[in-house]
Amino acid sequence: MLPETLSECGPAATIEGRDPSIITGGHADRGEWTLLIAPERIVDACRILKERETFVRLSSVTAVDWYPAEPRFEVVYHLHSIERNQRLRLKCKVGGEAPEIDSVTGVWAGANWYEREVFDLFGVGFRGHPDLRRLMMPDDWEGHPLRKDYPVHGYKYSYKD
Question: Where are the domains of the chain?
Fold first, then answer.
């Protein structure tokens, strides 16, 4: 059952009509909707929104580290319906020692580099990603620098000759 706060959100109603277990909550702020999505259903939600609600553009994927809370991370997807000039934010909570969520590169190929960036800087893995490797940090870099428990001065790093 769709929470009452989402009763006016057309995209939420579309998802709810397809599968009520996908949305776990949400809210509106300053005219933009945020939907909380069950992490194991992110690909389904994205497909529905792209195919039925014309959210054909994935603007970005990022993450938030809520350390020391568990689940520790929120993976955030910013969607845009160019046809309706409407924006939508999706959030999924992921946690554990090796946090993972399914890749949405099968829905939007442009998710590739966004997911790599989140993996590199936060350490969140994306199952099914075609080329999940570091994007910004050197391959032998230790840790993930945007995690809240990452040392302020970084881990000791030595350049290879």
Answer: 4-127
Instruction: For domain 4-127, say whether CATH 3.30.460.80 is its number.
Output: yes
Identify which of 81, 101, 89 has the alpha carbon closest to the alpha carbon of residue 38.
Answer: 101
pLDDT at 1: 67
For residue range 77-97, list pLDDT tens digits in order: 999 999 999 999 999 999 999
3-state secondary structure of 53: helix
Contact 140/82 with Cβ under 8 angstroms? no
Helix (H) or strand (E) holding 78: strand 73-81
DSSP state letters, 45-100: HHHHHHHHH---EEEEEEEEE-TTSSS-EEEEEEEEETTTTEEEEEEEEE-SSS-E
List phi, psi (to 5°) of 120. -65, -45
Structure-token pair, residue 154? 């970084």
Identify the residue whose tokens are 């939007």.
108
Distance from C-alpha of 39 to C-alpha of 37, rounded to nearest angstrom = 6
**How confident is the model at residue 10, as a pLDDT?**
93
